[in-house]
Amino acid sequence: MAATFAQPHAHGRLFSTSPLPKPTKNLRSPFTVRMSLQETGPSIAVVGVTGAVGQEFLSVLSDRDFPYRSIKMLASKRSAGKQMTFEDRNYTVEELTADSFDGVDIALFSAGGSISKQFGPAAVEKGAIVVDNSSAFRMVDGVPLVIPEVNPQAMRGIKVGMGKGALIANPNCSTIICLMAATPLHQRAKVLRMVVSTYQAASGAGAAAMEELELQTRKVLEGKPPTCNIFSQQYAFNLFSHNAPVLPNGYNEEEMKLVKETRKIWSDLDVKVTATCIRVPVMRAHAESVNLQFEKPLDEDTAREILKNAPGVVVIDDRASNHFPTPLEVSNKDDVAVGRIRQDLSQEGNHGLDIFVCGDQIRKGAALNAVQIAEMLL
Predict the structure, then answer these.
(1) Domain 6-170+365-376 CATH superfamily
(2) Where in this protein does the record put region Disordered (predicted)?
(3) Is the pLDDT of residue 4 over 60?
(4) Domain with CATH 3.40.50.720 in the chain
(5) How many other C-beta atoms are found inside a 10 Å radius of the C-beta of residue 225?
(6) Active-site entry in 11, 173, 228, 351
(7) 174-361 sits in which CATH class?
(8) For position 37, what pLDDT does the model report?
């Protein structure tokens, strides 16, 4: 598997280094036969289209030949009027307003929680099905929190053409990456307790954070003091507790998302989850160390076979060559990689496992998961 990674463009869009093609604003080759534009497809709106995840929405829609009859590019007033080319057609970015969703079937939101809270309900009132990437609605009763490979039943009955709008929440990136690997094992042996330590890339904080990491790295190597705008401390050649606000219980908001979202997605309020989330100087893709305690015995060989057959999961577990998942290997990839699959020696009777998981935060941790949800709406 070739090692690849993404870096921030100066204007906030992403480009990839060789050998990956650059997902510039024109997301398809002029020689590609465009199959996505279909009269019978849904009408789509992409909210926050100029951001890192918004751009990835377009890339994933194109990669997966998602059928649509029309697509709206929506962003803030500051970005309104910009010209974009998508699948050989030119679009003008429109300012997001409450009237932006007339005739829209599916609205993909990635513009932050405050924007989602303001405009998500307005889109639903207009009859759109909103797939929201923020944390605004994840823990709201009645709003499905969905990973398609894990709990597709949570959005049963919600379809384009049902005559009314709906809200569907995309889980937090760390939760998605963790549960893609933990759920197949949970389904076999039932997880009683899960301990997660995350190593989260700059991509989780957006394109500006990716740019800051790159610029800081250059400055430090040149012997200059780094500029800290996105984070309050040096990021290059350093790591620190996740920058989410710390709550009175000592956990930060990112850690509590893992706790609460896991319980909702698994429909299990009794599962014990604890997490420590760390920001590491990696450009793109998160890594997670996951310790699992099971109700039923589960040996490592059986676990490895379960994971090899799990949808959206690839096993990289070569002990002989000490080759296991890395963020570089999963960057710009759809699958979540799992390795270091081993029995937890602190637990008796094959009731515990340790695994190491890596996943692209922008793709499966955000845009891909949302587009997969949209595909289930058709």
Answers:
(1) NAD(P)-binding Rossmann-like Domain (3.40.50.720)
(2) 1-27
(3) no
(4) 6-170+365-376
(5) 9
(6) 173
(7) alpha beta
(8) 67
